[in-house]
Structures
1.
Amino acid sequence: MRRRPPPFLEEDLSEEPLINLTPLIDVVFVVLIAFMLIAPILDVDSILLAPSGSASKKETPPLQNGPVSISIRKDNSIWLEGKRVSLLDLEKRLTLERKRAPHMIPQMLPDASAHFATYQQVKNVIESCGFEQVDIVLRPP
């Protein structure tokens, strides 16, 4: 009588090996959840400003340097690139930035507790400096 080989030595060539997709699906779900949690944190909105006197529209080239960030804190103080400035200083600095990089779009980061009047004053200064657009970056409360 002939003995059968142990089952772990038998090769069943008719059956293909199974690929376990569980780790791949887990990673996809983790990435999806991360995007769902991060997406509402920063919301960038763009506001078109009044025309700045030049009637012709030009194609905006890509930025070489990052945009200028203007923060309005809850105490209604205005900060330009991390330094506190007055409205007059803001206008001077933005005029220089406009000459240096005419196609740059400034970013405004208003605090939810700041007065709307301060927001409007900063927006008016940006507009008076000749910028055609401003990005409003909102943070969740």
Note: The chain has three helices and six strands.
2.
Amino acid sequence: MNQSSWGAPPGAGQWGPPDQGPASALRGAAPPASAGPVPHEGDMAQTRPMPIVPGPGGHQDDHRDHRGAARRSGPLFRDEKPQEPMSTSFPGPDSSQDSEKPKKKSAGRNLRAAIGVGVGLGVIIIASLFVYKPVFIGVIAIAVVVGLWELTSRLAERKDIQVPLVPLAVGGTAMVVAGYVRGTEGAWVAMALTALAVLVWRMTEAPENYLRDVTAGVFAAFYVPFLATFVALMLAAEADGPQRVLTFLLLTVVSDTGAYAVGWRFGKHKLAPRISPGKTREGLVGAVLFAMVAGALCMEFLIKNGVWWQGLLLGLTVAASATLGDLGESMIKRDLGIKDMGTLLPGHGGIMDRLDSLLPTAPVVWLLFVIFVGSG
């Protein structure tokens, strides 16, 4: 669950307003025709750290250089802080007052749309989870198919990797159903058959890049449907299957929310700047604390025979796996050169942008449930 505001509030390190000292009397006036030669932008870039005394025609060039710098440093990914473009006109009478106004913190995305979509998804999940288990299996299968479509589409668009979607979609659905009906053995058999189907399906096309395409296909089969199968394995527990799935979802969401809230307010130290510049160490601490508290409450009140201290360990593990999953998909998106995997969910991106932290967390939570309270 890729949040865009783990880090410090935007605004730090941005270019400030143009110098309004000696040139303040020139507001609204065009530079005189007798202005000297326009300095080269490269020379100005080399001397930018030094204070520049504005000349009769200097402001226009300085604005032009600021504007170019803004274009070159524009954000590519969702979790980077956008820089505000510089004005291309001379400062007006109220510019000094505007520059003194405190900037409001921005969450970096459409929170209203994100919250609305999140609530809607939550209602669908809760209703299907506690009303009739097979309906929730259908929800998992739909999410898997859409996620595979997003992933294979981006691979084709950005890397020209042709991954066959049909065997992945059929095999991914079979994995989820087999995991729910036949347990881990059924999931592994379905995974093996899906990989084989990808290899055979790709043989109907030209042999060029065959190894590359089938490798990406097997990766997609493992990354999306196979990891999602562990949610079906949790649901299959007769005693408290829905409660296990609910605990898994709650802890992942709470971990992401804790990282978002703490990182946005207190984040200063980058966690992995080369992968996801928006995430901070303070945000990770928030994720751990929030998830541990939620884990203790869930194990004590939702899980049969669960103990609160088991929830502390569960929450700690969920915070770590969810963060790693988020960073993992950030690596994929950076390699592909995209911000989001899709646009299906307003304020969130695509389905894969919501599954990024859930998928790697599912097998971890399932295994800890088996260790702590049994398979059910």
Note: Residues 8-51, 53-104 have pLDDT under 50 and may be disordered.
3.
Amino acid sequence: MRIEVTQIYVDDQEKALAFYTDVLGFAKKADVTRGPYRWLTVVAPEQPDGVQLQLAPNRDPAAATYQRALYEQGQPAAMFFVDDVAAEHERLEARGVRFTMPPTEVPGSTIAMFDDTCGNLIQLTTLHRGQRS
């Protein structure tokens, strides 16, 4: 068993695609439209066959409610791992990304959180040495 795709809900797929590719640096993997349905995924460019992140529309009221509740509680919709949170924070801030939490040391890691402009908070994480295999 393995994870191939995970999803986050977004309020606008086109805006999300631009943010996740042009700002964050992910690569578009799949973009298939059938009627009102659009299957849209991105991947890490260094792992084109790795786990895909589906940018799913939040048109369903349950999805929109869930997305809003996570955001209002300050909970991340996704967590991305980076080698250096401070460097990534600096790079993304220079690209206009709004951070809701600057790089912060917590037990075992350094984290930061930003608004993806599509209704989500995203956490960046660097695990301290010996924490990840």
Note: Residues 41 and 129 are 31 Å apart (CA to CA).
4.
Amino acid sequence: MKIRSESGAARVQLIKQANESIDIAYHTLSEGTYSDYFFKTLIEAADRGVKVRIIWDGLIGGMRGNIRNALASHENIELYLFEPLNLFKPWTIHHRLHDKILLADGKYLITGGRNIADKLYDPPGYLREIVYDRDILILRSGQRSVLDEVKSYYNELIAFNGTKRIKKRNSKVLQEYRSRQIGYETVMLYRTNPDILDPSRMHKAFITLVTNPIKRGSNEPWIWDAINSIGSNAEKRVLFQSPYLIPRLSQIKDMEKWKIKPEFLTNSISTTPNIPGFSAYLRVRTKLRSIFDIDEYMGPGSIHAKTILVDDGLSIIGSFNLDPRSTHLDRESMYVISSPGFNSQMNQILSYYRDTNMKVKEASFLKTALFTIASIILLPFKLLV
């Protein structure tokens, strides 16, 4: 609960203290208790003159109706859809925006695997299954920073010819959102807390941004190439955490050449909520388990985090799943973090999910049957899940 609420509070804190600009990119922006507070805080920032840009996936990204109209009515807010459905260009349906970026004033960045949805922040009154995810908070510490690379990458997303700007509109719902009352419990949980951004609580690190190309068609696997290069030079360990595992045959062959056999942590059939992704994993599960060591999480909730730990000093965190879509089709970003202290902290967190005492949840017969059938039906589309 603490980690998820801190993640939500950190986003609110960055928005509340921003003075000049806020750049936001998400795969999905869902309605809910936390979302109401998030968007209300954004509107308040825009009211005080902060320039806000938001881009999200144009096919499955959500944020329709009143909230979109409200944001589009504000003079200081620009909205963009990445590759919205175009019946005259059906091939563009495969290229999705999967980044998660909140960049404030070019000085603070929250990025990782979390979208905007209640299941990721567990607000007061939320009673459904929770999802465990991972963010990193990066603060600028000098004239040159990885945040400059993130800003450039964000500008490229906006300038891409498949990105559509939403037209300004005059809607009365903007005032409704300005005056919307947020529950006391929610405000207290995500209240302003400058200590969240205290540099003394953070690790000093050298960070490199790695992205996929921003273009249509089957992209060059820039992120995988970087992971393969780093993994092939590992001396002690490589540990992957991913919601599901669907490596291509070429990726399996790459990993078999590494000096250190990688280990994997993923969901089990009892915890996963993702039918397409996990059913594709079931098709290759036996083969993968014969080659690699794989732990399947069977505790409460489910895993959505994307993390790779290499030896005792490198950590790689971002939006990249180990699947063909993240490798060749989607817009993705990963951050290579050189910091022994941060690596040690991540190792402790991942150990929680690997603890055998957490294996308390068994899949129902109905769910097992459903995923088994789906693995057969979706076989022709395994490269697109």
Note: DSSP finds twelve helices and 16 strands in the chain.
